[in-house]
Amino acid sequence: MATRSTADDLERELVGRPSTVRPRLAYLLSGVAPAVADRLQPARPQSVTWFGHSRTSRRFDKRFNVADGLLPFDPHALSEIA
User: How far is CA 63 from CA 5, 9, 24, 32, 73, in A?
Assistant: First the structure.
């Protein structure tokens, strides 16, 4: 997805989606497509966006205001796709 979609494509896809989708997507792309994540980053998240079913988080990302209780790894640790 990160290599096949532009930030503009993803912006169009986000239209009509819940406000929590934007910070989750930006968080997921932060390692593999940091420039796209920068464009998708919400200006000022109003509240914490939970990623996963539980309210117990493995990590908290201040930049995107995402509490991640799902992924067993940090998306920031993934390498950028060339």
Answer: 22, 22, 11, 16, 17
Three-state secondary-structure class, residue 68: strand
Residue 2 resides in a domain: no
The mean of the pLDDT values for the chain is: 89
User: 1 in a domain, yes or no?
Assistant: no
* Region for residue 6 given its phi and psi (left: phi exceeds 0; alpha: psi -120 to 50; beta: otherwise): beta
Model pTM?
0.88
Q: How far apart are CA 38 and CA 7, in angstroms?
A: 9
pLDDT (mean) for 59-70: 93
Give the total number of structural domains in the chain.
1
Task: Give 6 or 42, the one with higher predicted confidence.
Answer: 6
Q: Does 82 map to a domain? A: no
